[in-house]
Amino acid sequence: MAGAPAPDFTLPLLSGGDLTLSKEKGSTVILDFWATWCGPCRVAMPAIHQVAKELAGRGVKLYSIDQGEDAETIKAFLVQMQLEDIQVALDTDMSVSQLYHADGIPQTVIVGPDGVVRLVHVGLWAIPTEDAADTPEGQAKQMQQVLADSLRKDIEAILDTPSNSAP
After folding, report:
1. CA 12/CA 20 separation, integer angstroms
2. Cβ contacts of residue 16 below 8 Å, gap of 6+?
3. What is the pTM of this model?
4. Could you tell me if 96 and 119 are in contact, meaning their C-beta atoms sit under 8 angstroms apart?
5. Cα separation of 167 and 33, whole Å?
6. Which residues, given as ranges, of the chain have pLDDT below 70?
7. CA-closest candidate to residue 61, choices 111, 106, 120, 3
8. Is residue 22 classed as helix, strand or coil in its secondary structure?
């Protein structure tokens, strides 16, 4: 998908209203495909959210696309994870997940301001085994840091490309 125009879609937002991707042209959009039951998604979401908040002033927007779960399950999860301010799009029939080939989650898709898919990443970013912390909690924090650093670098490169202005 990278290098191709991002497939357009409209999904309802958990907070009300709709997300129509084509209306986001001019912004760099992170689409984070996930589900509450997905362990790696639980590790990735806080890091993706952190980077999106850091870069929001540069036109970066995050939409987390939940795969097929009900609103109450999602709301409870967001409260538990202290991520209530994330914009969640509800892909109840999984049609957008299919459109983006999000068969494995988490899947992170970055759409440039021109509406072109710039990056697709499936799964968590890896840390070298010899550098891994001794505890699962420590390893999760390391993965979050590696993910945040890599995602920040990738998005900043997109933002700093002169040809990325929307037509």
Report:
1. 9
2. none
3. 0.87
4. no
5. 27
6. 124-136, 139, 162-167
7. 111
8. helix
